[in-house]
Design goal:
By secondary structure, the protein is α/β, with parallel strands linked by helices. It has nine helices and eight strands. The radius of gyration is 21 Å and the shape is globular. The protein starts with 12 loop residues before the first helix and ends with a helix.
Length: 272
Amino acid sequence: WWRVDPATQEAPLSGLDELLNERTALVILPQVSNLLGAVADVREVARLAHRVGARVVVDGVAFAAHRPVDVAAWDVDWYVFSTYKVYGPHMAVLYGSEAALAELTGPNHFFIPKESVPYKFELGGCNHEACAGLVGLGRYLNFAAGRPEEEPCRRETIVTAFRHFGELELPLQARLLEWLRGRKGVRIIGPATAGPERVPVISFRVEGRSSAAICREIDATEVALRQGHMYAYRLCTALGIDPEDGVVRVSLLHYNTPAEVERLIGILDGIL
């Protein structure tokens, strides 16, 4: 395993480099930990992996909601995420480079040619309602980018929309992290400052308090937070966190407002 350093809450690239050799076939990682909110340097991971002939598979589900995806710039072989994380329907996206796709036979019928992409991966028809929702996502991104909604959604539109999202999210995470840093007994899980090194998925623990109990109190205020290990069970264990109690996690997005963050801070101030 590529292991995390409990002191820094990071998995140093040097640790990955030590593991790689000619027997390495795949390097699989999340671009953003949904526990830490930290953004991994997938471009450098790809460079290290490709140096020994390995393929790179990136789970972008916690990244894609906040930043534009750029598989070409990162030089990754496979990239996956859910479209509902980017304000669309419940569908999945799988990108594969031409070289990576050519290596696989695909799960479709044996008589489907290996070079028939994406047909060799398509076992049936897509859900039509979900496809309509995906088309609607283009209209939303056009709106967010300040373009006519009926226009085709182009790459530059996506980049502009997500740049706006980031501009809206940054002050929200900065304010909440500032408050958490100043609160005695609070341990921020992940980067403690706002910036390009993280997204506004903010986890914390409170000394002497159960994360589950804190969330139960917050639930009564009709503010939606989560508690638990966030499927990062081994990471919790590595950081000395009881996975069953886990962390309290706040997930902010561009449509949240400064007033909502201030309300949350007021609620937390009363509970903690």
